[in-house]
Predict the 3D structure of the following.
Amino acid sequence: MPSVYIKTYGCQMNERDSEQVAAQLVAKGYTLAPTEATADVILLNTCSVRDMAEKKALGKMANLAAAVRRSRPDVVLGFMGCMAQSRGRELIDRLPDVDLVLGTQKFHRAAEYLDDLLQGRSSKVVDVEAEAGSQSAIREHLLGGVGGPGAGQAVTAFVSIMQGCNQRCTFCIVPDTRGEERSRSIEDIVSECRTLAERGVREVTLLGQIVTSFGRRDIPVKEGLSPFVQLIEAVHAVEGIRRIRFTSPHPKGYGEDLVEAYGRLPKLVESAHIPLQSGSNRILKLMHRGYTRERFLEILEKLRRVRPGMGITTDLIVGFPGETEEDYLETESLVRQASFDNAYIFRYSQRRDTPAASLPGQLPDEVKEDRNQRLLALVNGIGGPRYEACVGRRMEILVEGPSKRNEARMMGRSRCGRIVVFDGSPRHRGEVMEVDITRAGSFTLYGDPAILNLGPAEE
């Protein structure tokens, strides 16, 4: 059977989509190629959030086409995902060696279209049309699939609960590439989580563009609980699942019911990634974010009151059109007040057909880069001591597997989201255990397994 190699650009949603496509193809008899050099099919799962991600994917495909067509002319080349959705046939016009362009609502048709291409029934396929029900069309899990590569080895898994976004932030192209919000049913998601638990998964991350918007058009509020909190409760009841995370939420979604859920649902770990984007109320308004810096800080205060050990990370954008030095310094100010564990910092990137792309006051790259470096230094300066403060504590971790940097050691993640590396063996995989933290590195902790349970674990 043909072999396939998938390279993924962008976010966790893209990683999950690539896993789904890979699992679908394995189920159809395809094998997974270890590198592109030996693959019969090469797929690039693309991102459109930033210009650089698109440029990387386009450059990669141009290089692949030049190399592959000389020696292996029958190899199928394809784009999937967000850039495929936004550009469509334009990609084949630009790169004629591309055979397949698959949009974000068509991942479940990958095997069908590849079979057509490999067997000569089609010469080119472009499908970026919307398709009702696509959010529930496939749910295969590559690493945890029965009989698949690494069967039974996955300890954590992403569970996609919805597709699309209705928020329409002025800088973001996602509503155009992912479509409007479409949620799966609670029953379907719970069924998937049960299957994962049976395969050894102990932690699930509920995944969506804005997970806190889950079901708001289809599922009524029940006993004061939003659809998203109802979903968390239902997953919480799944036997075998020890931990629940979610990403990415929107600050507007942190109602009292969600804050309160952290205090009464022990499987909902004290870890939150809450995108801020800017600390300037003026810029937040231009971004169409729908909250103020004061409201954002209020949310953090409430979460830390319910769970004092809450680990909080965020997303930040510098260089948004019209951002003055004063606006930027307000972001610095909020970062200091919020005391984030870590932050992902992005330089504003113009995306075509978004309102921000035509705003006045587009900033030069050197200004964006300067603010990016300054903010990065600030975030590191705050996060580093927070990690150092963990030395000497005992933490509960879920062991995920070998450390990526040193396979002779094992790694796990604390409830508040910190990576912990320790001396262990593969038999620890999937265990929830206590570790004494002995030192801190750059956003990584190191420790030794606790031999005696001398007291409650630090979270």
